[in-house]
Amino acid sequence: MRDIQTDRADHSDSSRTASGGPGAGPVQMPAAVAVDRRKPRTWLKVLPELVTLVLCGFLWLPTGGFTSTIGGPGPALYPRVLIALLALSMVVRIVQQVREDRRGIAAEDADEAPLEEGAEFDASLMSGRRVAVAIALSVGYVFATLFLGWVVATFVFTIVFLVLAGKRNLLIVVPTALALSVGLAYVFVRIVYISLPTGVGPFDLATVWLFELLGIY
Amino acid sequence: METLSGVLEALTSFSLTLWIILVLGVITGLVVGVLPGLTFVMGVLLILPFTYGMEPEVGLVLMLAVYVAGTYGGAITSILLHIPGEPNNVPLLWDGYTMTRQGRAAEALGWAAIAAFAGGLVAWVMLTFAAKPIATVALKFGQAEYFVIVLLGLTSVLALAERSVTRSLAALIVGMLLATVGVDDVYGTVRFDYGSDILRDGIDYLPVMVGIYALGHVLIRFGENFAAENAPQPGRVKTTIPGLRALRERSGSMGRGVAVGSLMGGVPGAGATVASFVSYGLEKQFGKDRGEVGKGSPNGVIAPQASSTATVGGAFIPLLVLGIPGSAATAVILGALLLHNVQPGPQIFQTQPELVYTIMAALLVSVVLMFIVGLAASGPMVRLLKVPEAYVAVLIVLFAYIGAFAIRNSISDVWIMTLFAVLGFFMQKWGYPLAPLVLGAILGPLAERYFTTAMISSGNDLSIFVTRPISAVLVGVWVVVLGFLVYRAVRQSRPSTPSKTDAPTDTPAAR
Known about the structure:
The structure holds two protein chains of two kinds.
Chain A: H1 2-20, H2 31-45, H3 47-60, H4 77-103, H5 113-116, H6 128-148, H7 150-164, H8 170-191, H9 201-214
Helix pairs in contact in A: 3-4, 6-7, 7-8
Chain B: H1 2-12, H2 16-34, H3 40-51, H4 56-81, H5 90-101, H6 105-138, H7 143-159, H8 165-178, E1 182-183, E2 190-191, H9 197-200, H10 205-223, H11 244-249, H12 251-265, H13 272-286, H14 299-322, H15 328-339, H16 348-351, H17 353-376, H18 378-383, H19 389-408, H20 411-429, H21 435-457, H22 464-467, H23 469-493
Antiparallel strand pairs in B: 1-2
């Protein structure tokens, strides 16, 4: 959001400096333009709420088919009440945000924004790119367990995760990955009887062979 | 008396396995409490898959021990190193760490240990002596009463919302809606499956919890590059147990702490974290030494710690007696009970008395072990902090996968877990709290089931909720709580209303 705001600011600044000559310094925005610049920001801020509102509409559609011949309130009432309440709370949130933004036009630096938006963690410590990497790793790990089997996927995942987390000493990382993948497989498959995925094709064969070797199977 | 003799009999017939499990559980709970990357809710969640292969009582005892000890473990690092191992240990920073800086670390540690012990003992007394009488009253409850109790629970989640009531409501409803996916309990109608088998099987709250609390936490910490305070390790960790006179002097603060914890434990919107903060706030406003609180007063350590551990008793009673969890950790334990085919409710005293007495006896032993092991092992536990958080994080991910997978031996639960970890991250980014979502997913289906069956049996007559006497009283209480909630919501929407106390700005993480 901040990047988009900066882009718009640059655009406005360049159009001003074009008339004011090259190298003109930062320009004071009159209030009217400041309000315009805020409008896209508000829409963006309430985008999650708007999307949820639309989703409420989509969720309402199938409830017509929730029927039953037994008496009572029926299987559709409860979800409908919930969807209506959710839609209402989204509308209230949007109204609250718009009112806050109108009041906050005189407000100071955008660095306060993360706290005002009420994010539950400190945005200044967070790197969006790193979170994206963590999400990709997690999703990739689950996929990998389906094809490579749990043991192999876990071994690979552990190494990749630790390396990306900054632990580059492979002499510690690789044995740790091995101990965790094999050790946990032993505990959970042999002792707790959970049938963790064994993978497909050659990976399946390899996992079964390993389990037999370790006395798990 | 009958209960007490049942408990003593259970205690004397503990097998060696059970004793070993208790010790392991307490150690695990203390370690989980100490490590900042792990909360005790996560600890109980991640230990769940271990319990599948165990007898129900052994698995339950393990989870109980982790839960109890987890409320105390983090006190040690809060006091010594300004590192709260758990969100409920945050208030201990304000006086506990200050005492360390004043050279009174041993005294602070002693008070924390005694407070946890006292809180745990009160929890045990409450569970042992109050559970059965409450169960006897609860036998008179019908579906209408159960519905109003769950409704009270849902409303209290909102009334106790830390920030915006509207956002908490939205999160709560999302949780409740999630629980409607799949086959309806009462009518057998399939809802929101969109033709998918995964959705037809429903969304269990356990993978949602594992995703939000465990994997979601790792996503955030990875995003922060596991940034942490680098505090110097203390040379030697010493603890001084306060004497009898000091105990008498501080009994007011101790009493207030355990009272708050016991009461708040049973309220679904409040767990150890809320109780701890509320207790600290009360001490600062009304305590005998209120001027000293915040400057290194033992009362600032005693009240929050006593209240954190006391919540265990308060949370266990509605769990056992009504099947309604009083906290996130007891919600996980409920999941474990159901997976082992144990149906909690007022009848449990008749159908499974040995299990109930075993749980009560195990709570007492856990509290004592927590005290002893906590004191003896403070030094080594502090050294645990040297383990880089990245390794703890990897362990959490692996356990999260296994935990989600093992519920139904199904990869779809792992996908649900992953989805909620990601969704949970974005919800937090947009300012939506996650605890209401989890509680909504747990209490939502209960609310629907009780409401629907009450209405079916009354012939669609809504007045049943006010014509039945017990239900009418509960509805009255609900109206009061609702009134408080509306008042809060209206106050929040007024411009420039300060919404938080004058406590320092450490923000508690999701319970």
